[in-house]
TrEMBL record:
The chain holds residues 105 to 366 of 366 of the full protein. It catalyses: ATP + protein L-histidine = ADP + protein N-phospho-L-histidine. Keywords: ATP-binding, Cell membrane, Kinase, Membrane, Nucleotide-binding, Phosphoprotein, Transferase, Transmembrane, Transmembrane helix, Two-component regulatory system. Its EC number is 2.7.13.3. It comes from Ferroacidibacillus organovorans. One of its GO terms (cellular component) is plasma membrane. This is histidine kinase. Residues 41-255 form the Histidine kinase domain.
Length: 262
């Protein structure tokens, strides 16, 4: 290439090279911009729950709030939510794919129970009507238990974040001959049709002004979807603005004859 003896060819190549370099430097500048914006967004999102936590703790220390077990449960739920945000961010900054963890049969009902424990205090505090259907006994899916827990916590988190007091959240599990279908349905604010195709993309949030108040990262659904796809399942979000949202997780079930422990 550099030893080309034909002047017109070499001119073309230099033009090509310089336009490629131009394009590359433009892309790098765009990436740097994006990174800067991302860091600003992320630190803002992390500061919001911390400020709320600090205010609650100050109220307890100053004797404005009685330190009741319920209050501590609520603070704990806030800390767990904060921790989840950090985990989400960490995962998204460090890697582009869910970690290649070994997959083992995971009891779906146990995992859902744990996820519900994470969010129960906040749901109660928000006075949301919460209904959990009958959970199946001894049904397993092949995945990583921590990652599946993260999926359910992310979906439940969204269900209560975008649902107003006195509305409802319903969790249901259906088992077919091949799959286990978990649905989390809320009667919350819903998602506009135009945003629906993008909500599982990283950092995508519907109308940032509306979401700012809820202090999310726009990563919850993207991470949930990656984990579910990695476990050979599917995640579907259906929604109607002002009516509510249904998140459906379908995972292939492990035949119980293959499971040697509970
Ligand atoms: P976030 O951390 O912002 O909640 P997610 O990836 O979990 O990020 O969700 C992306 C966006 O999709 C949210 O910002 C919100 O606007 C919308 N969304 C997700 N779940 C729901 C829901 N159950 N009801 C209404 N809007 C939702």
């Amino acid at each position: 290439f550099f030893h080309n003896s034909n002047p017109s060819n070499s001119h073309n190549e230099i033009t090509y090279l310089s336009s490629t370099l131009n394009h590359m430097s433009q892309q790098l500048a765009q990436q740097a911009n994006l990174r800067e914006r991302l860091i600003q967004d992320v630190s803002h999102e992390l500061r919001t729950p911390l400020t709320a936590l600090k205010a609650s703790l100050a109220a307890i220390i100053d004797g404005v709030w009685m330190p009741t077990p319920e209050r501590f449960a609520l603070l704990m739920a806030e800390v767990t939510r904060f921790e989840k945000m950090v985990l989400d961010l960490e995962r998204s900054m460090i890697q582009t794919q869910p970690t290649m963890r070994a997959k083992v049969p995971v009891n779906i009902s146990n995992c859902l129970h744990l996820a519900i424990e994470h969010v129960k205090a906040i749901i109660e505090e928000k006075k949301i009507i919460f209904h959990v259907g009958i959970l199946p006994v001894d049904q397993y899916v092949l995945t990583d238990a921590d990652q599946l827990l993260q999926v359910f916590v992310n979906l439940l988190d969204n269900a209560y974040k975008y649902t107003l007091p006195h509305h409802s959240i319903e969790v249901k599990v259906e088992v077919t001959s091949r799959d286990i279908k978990t649905t989390i349905r809320d009667t919350g604010i819903g998602i506009p049709m135009k945003d629906l195709p993008y909500i599982c993309e990283r950092f995508y949030r519907v109308e940032s002004s509306r979401d700012r108040k809820t202090g999310g990262t726009g990563l919850g659904l993207a991470i949930a979807k990656e984990i579910i796809i990695d476990s050979n399942g599917s995640l579907q979000i259906e929604s109607q603005l002002g009516i509510g949202t249904i998140a459906t997780v379908i995972l292939p079930k492990v035949l119980s004859t293959f499971v040697s422990f509970s």
